[in-house]
Amino acid sequence: MQWSCLQAVGTTTWVIVNWMSPPGPIVFFGTPEFAVPTLQALCAAGMAPARVVTQPSRPVGRGRRVQAPPVARRAAELGLEVEQVAKVRSSSFIDRVVELGPWVSVVVAFGQIFPVRLLEAPVAGSVNLHASLLPAYRGAAPIQAAVASGEKITGVTTMRMTAGLDAGPILLQNEVEIGADETAAELSRRLAATGGDLIVATLEGLAAGSIRERAQNDSLSTFAPRLEKGDAEIDWSLGSGAIYDRFRAFQPWPGLRGRLRGEPIKIVACRPASPAVSPDSEAAEPGTVVVVSDAIGVACGGGTRLEITALQRPGRRPLDARTFANGERLEAGASFERVL
User: Fold this and answer.
1) In the chain, what are the helix, strand and coil shares in percent, each to the nearest 5?
2) pTM of the full predicted structure?
3) Which pLDDT score, from 0 to 100, does residue 339 have?
């Protein structure tokens, strides 16, 4: 049994945790906000990393001010040793990790490919937290891919890292339901919290020798590539439900957008019409405005209709549908186009 420090901003609380010290040092690799709950969970469980590795500080926001990644900031608040590394493939960096003699590496959304020597440096190997139920949605954007595909259930997986992309043996998994109106950003926060608990359970199981690894079925794997700006383009031939799923998936970035009267337009808020299929939408070409009221109804594939309740022109503030329609004198029969 050991003492562990749980630290919030401005306060420090000491608690006793019912878990023996890990067999050796833990090295934590992580960069974005998604990785912070896991770092906090490790500290709360008496598994504070001996070293936290994160990517270098970079310019962020409109002002392009240089800022340390969320993991680096939180690790500093927790009093942990932090190392910001531009390239983990560097032999000098790997030498420093080997010299530490780690028991295990924990990797959460770090953002770089690990060479085999780094993966194998810890005695117990390298454990990754992935935000999907592997082998589904391997890749850089599993949360967005699950929401965009209309999945009802996703989850988090811990796996032993190998040279293949998210292809290592599965250690533990935890399912999470996706809310009907939940955005990727909202789901990400829930999965991050669940993932922190799963990492702790995984390390406890590895230390106790109670985890049975199982190989992934590669034939069932799907891929979730990194999001790009072009993913925001609306394909009006899709059903309104599919478009709404993409709207939820691409919040806050890259969003959802099309063109109206030749100028780009961002969809700020929308919902599928109920009932899904309507006579006016069935008779109209996808992308055609069929209703203008408190929501702008746009015909979509399969006779469905998307109700847009807020829109935004570039460089202007968002407007509710009625205000926007009045200002642009928008009437039924107008047409949204795809961004070219």
Assistant:
1) 30, 30, 40
2) 0.91
3) 52
